[in-house]
Amino acid sequence: MIFRLECMMDDDTPTRSGLHAEHILYALTRDPRAFLSPHLIKCLLQLQPGFSVINDTERASLRALALLVDDGVSAALEELVRTPTRPVSADALRTLRMATVLLAHELETGDPGTGEWAALNALWTQHSHGLPLHLLTALDALAADAHARFSLIPPPPLSSHPPSGCLLAGANELLQVLSHLIPSHPLPTRAVNELVNAVADLFACADATDTLNSAESTRIAQILRGSCIDVVRALDPELVLRALLRRGTDLAGASAAAQDPVRQAHYALSLVDLVLPQEPDTPNGDKVRHALPRVLPELAAFFRALDVDGRAHLVRRLAELDGGVLGIAEWLVLDELRALCEALRVLAAETPPPDLWTVKAHQVVVALRLLHDLMRGMALEARRIVAFVGSEAEPAGLLVMALNLLLANRAASQEQVELAQVLVQSCTGDDGIFGANGPDRNLWFALGLIFLRAVQHVSLTLTPILYALEALRQVPIRIIEPDRLSTELGDALLVLASSTSSSSSPPPDSLGTEAPAILSLLEWLVEQSHAGLPQLATLRGISTDTFAQLCDALVRALPSARRPALEHVRLHLHTAHEEDAGLRSLHTLPLPMADVRIALGELLRPGSDAANAASAAAGIAGTGEGEGGRQLPNRATTPPHARGVLSMVTVSPPTALLRSPAVTGLTKTYTANDFRVLRQTPSARQNTSRLPSTHVDVGILSFLVVVLRVDDLFSVGVSVDDDFARHGAHAHSGPTSKSLWNWTWAAVWFLNTTTLGVPSAAPQRRSLE
Question: Taking Cα atoms as reference points, which of 523, 541, 519, 520 lies closest to residue 531?
Answer without folding.
Answer: 523
